[in-house]
Amino acid sequence: MANISINTTQLQQVLTEALMNEWSLQGHAMTSKVVHDIDFVVKQEAQLLSLSGYMYPYGNIQASGARWRKFPNWYAIQQWVKLRMQIQDEQKSKSIAFAIAQTFKKSGMPTAGSLQFSSTGKRTDWVEEAFKRDETKIEDTIRQMIFGLLTVNIDVLIKKWNLILNEK
User: What is the predicted pLDDT for the residue at 19?
Assistant: First the structure.
């Protein structure tokens, strides 16, 4: 059977939209860079198609939570303070970053106080929640892709049989 190439662009768009929506609902969207920079890698071998998404480690930390040892360096926390709180003063942003780091050290991440930013009541499992929330749309998109593939495969078989029958 012929190796047929599948266009996964629509599925990637549906997944990105679902992930972006959940990322925002959980209150993580400041720059949304984590979601926008997900790198989708498509592998097709014979009749097997896989679509993987790779993201910055920060997205995984937000998905599963973390203890202190997994947190980014001071500079990263301070940059977050500058972006989120619009505090550009070096000393003040460093002081706030230190206070946040102490809270992380005591309670891990997410903190209880961060729930105020979530409209879903969740601050972790954003990937799984996105897939649950948009399961029907994702399944419909995959179904359309499979139907397109089956149609192409049937067309290839018909053309193949026409060639064989016309040769005789």
Answer: 95
**Chain segment 8-37, per-residue pLDDT in tens:** 889 999 999 999 999 999 998 887 888 988
Type of residue at 73: N
3-class SS at 66? strand
**Element (H or E) spanning 20, and its range?**
helix 9-25
Q: How far apart are CA 11 and CA 137, in angstroms?
A: 10
Q: For residue 146, give the nearest of 17, 3, 42, 8 by alpha carbon.
A: 8
Query: What does the domain layout of the chain look like in residue ranges?
Result: 1-65+118-168, 66-109
Summary count for the chain: helices (H), strands (E): 7, 2
Strands (E), 23-102: 39-45, 48-54
Q: Which amino acid, 131?
A: F
For the entire predicted model, the pTM comes to 0.73
* Full DSSP string of 138-161: HHHHHHHHHHHHHHHHHHHHHHHH
pLDDT band at 84 (very low <50, low <70, confident <90, very high): confident
93 touches 81 (CB < 8 A): yes
Amino acid identity, residue 148?
A: G
Rounded Cα distance, 69 and 59, in Å: 16
